C-alpha cells in the first residue's frame, strides 16, 4: 500500500564516509593535482612565461584596489554619514596604518576628522617621515631588490654595474631619483611575494643581462662598489 510505496520510493540514507572513501578522495585529489602539474609542465616555456608575467601584472593591479576603494569613499560617500560611520572611517584608518604617506591636509585625513575630530596620524606616517625613510634605504645595501633576487647577491659584478648606473646616472636627475624612490616603494613587496620563485627570476634575468651588457659596453664598471650617498 502507501507505506510499501513510501518505503520503495524513499531514497536510502547515505552511508557515513568510511576510511576507504576517505582514501579514494585522497587518491583522486592527487590524480587531479598530478594532471594539472603535468599540463603546466608541458606548456611551451614562452607561453608559460607570458602567463606568469600577466599573473604578476594582475597581482600588481590588485594591489591598487585598496587605494581605489578609499578614493571612492572620499569622492562619493564622504557626505554619507551612515556609510562613513559604519565602515568608511575604519577603512580609511586601516589604509593609512598600512604605511601610506599622509599629511594633515590629506583627503583621507580630512574625511576622517569630519567624523572623528580626535584622530591623529600614526607616528612616522607623515610624508616627510616616510620620504626620510625611503632616502635612507636608497643609499643602503637594501637596494636593487629585483637584481639581488635574480643574481643571488647584492655584491656581484652584475649588481655592482646596476648600482653604479643608479648612483651616477639615474640619481643625477630629479626624475631619475623619483624613479628610484618609486622602485624602492614597490620592489620589496614584489620580491617578498615572488623573489623565491624560478619563473620570477627567469622573467627578469634576460632583461637584466642585456641591460648589464649594454652598460658594460658603455663603460660602466663591474668591479666591487660601495654605494654613493645622494
- Helix content, binned percent: over 70%
Q: Please describe the biggest sheet, giving its number of strands, its sense, and whether it closes into a barrel.
A: none
Q: Which residues form runs of ≥5 with pLDDT under 50?
A: 133-142
Structural class: mainly alpha
N to C succession of SSEs:
HHHHHHHHHHH
Strand content: under 5%
Please give the alpha-carbon distance between the first and last residues.
95 Å
**What is the alpha-carbon Rg in Å?**
27 Å
Mean of all residue-level pLDDT scores? 76
Total number of helices = 11
Number of strands: 0
Q: What gross morphology would you assign?
A: flat
Task: Give a brief rundown of this model.
This protein has 230 residues and is mostly helical. It has helices at residues 2-9, 19-42, 45-63, 65-76, 81-97, 107-115, 127-138, 145-151, 157-168, 174-194, 198-217.
Question: Please, could you describe this protein's structure?
Answer:
The chain is mostly helical. It contains eleven helices and no strands. The chain is 70% helix and 0% strand.
Give the helix/strand layout:
Elements: H1 2-9, H2 19-42, H3 45-63, H4 65-76, H5 81-97, H6 107-115, H7 127-138, H8 145-151, H9 157-168, H10 174-194, H11 198-217
List keywords for this structure.
about 230 residues; mainly alpha; 11 helices; flat
Amino acid at each position: 500500500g502507501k507505506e510499501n510505496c513510501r518505503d520503495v520510493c524513499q531514497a536510502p540514507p547515505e552511508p557515513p564516509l568510511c576510511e576507504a572513501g576517505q582514501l579514494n578522495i585522497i587518491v583522486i585529489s592527487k590524480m587531479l593535482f598530478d594532471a594539472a602539474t603535468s599540463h603546466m609542465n608541458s606548456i611551451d616555456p614562452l607561453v608559460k612565461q607570458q602567463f606568469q608575467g600577466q599573473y604578476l601584472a594582475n597581482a600588481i593591479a590588485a594591489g591598487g584596489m585598496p587605494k581605489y576603494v578609499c578614493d571612492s569613499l572620499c569622492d562619493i560617500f564622504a557626505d554619507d554619514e551612515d556609510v562613513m560611520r559604519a565602515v568608511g572611517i575604519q577603512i580609511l584608518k586601516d589604509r593609512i596604518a598600512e604605511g601610506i604617506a599622509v599629511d594633515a591636509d590629506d583627503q583621507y585625513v580630512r574625511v576622517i576628522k569630519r567624523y572623528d575630530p580626535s584622530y591623529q596620524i600614526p607616528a612616522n606616517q607623515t610624508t616627510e617621515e616616510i620620504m626620510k625613510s625611503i632616502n635612507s634605504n636608497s643609499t643602503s645595501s637594501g637596494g636593487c631588490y629585483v637584481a639581488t633576487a635574480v643574481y643571488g647577491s647584492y655584491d656581484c659584478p652584475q649588481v655592482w654595474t646596476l648600482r653604479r648606473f643608479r648612483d651616477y646616472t639615474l640619481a643625477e636627475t630629479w626624475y631619475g631619483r623619483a624613479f628610484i624612490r618609486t622602485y624602492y616603494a614597490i620592489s620589496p613587496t614584489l620580491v617578498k611575494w615572488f623573489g623565491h620563485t624560478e619563473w620570477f627570476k627567469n622573467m627578469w634575468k634576460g632583461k637584466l643581462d642585456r641591460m648589464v651588457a649594454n652598460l658594460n659596453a658603455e663603460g660602466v664598471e663591474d668591479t666591487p662598489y660601495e654605494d654613493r650617498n645622494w
